[in-house]
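Table S2 (continued). Query chain:
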Amino acid sequence: MATLFSPEFLALFLVFFVCYWLVAPWVRLQNSLLLLAGYYFVGHSSVEALMVLVSWSLCVCLLVQIAASRRYKDKTVPLLITLLVSYFMAFKYLMPLNDWL
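Corresponding output:
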C-alpha cells in the first residue's frame, strides 16, 4: 500500500483531483467518483475491509429503498437504525480486524 506521502499516491491524487473538477457540472458523477475512490483506497489496504464496506453500503441502500417505499416512514426508521447498528456491531465485535491483517 502506498503511504499518503509517497510519489505514487500524490500522482494518483493529482489525477483524481483533476478528474473530479472536470466533472464539476455533474454532481452525481462527482459523488460516484468519490465513492469509487474511497472503495479503491480501502480495497488497496485490505480486501476484507472492502467487502465489509461494500456490504455495508448495499445494506444501507437497500434499507433506504425499503424505508422510502413504505407508507409509514416513522415506524420503519427505528427498525432501520437498529438493523444498521447490529450489522456494525457484528463486524466490530464478532470479526476482529486483527484477524484480517
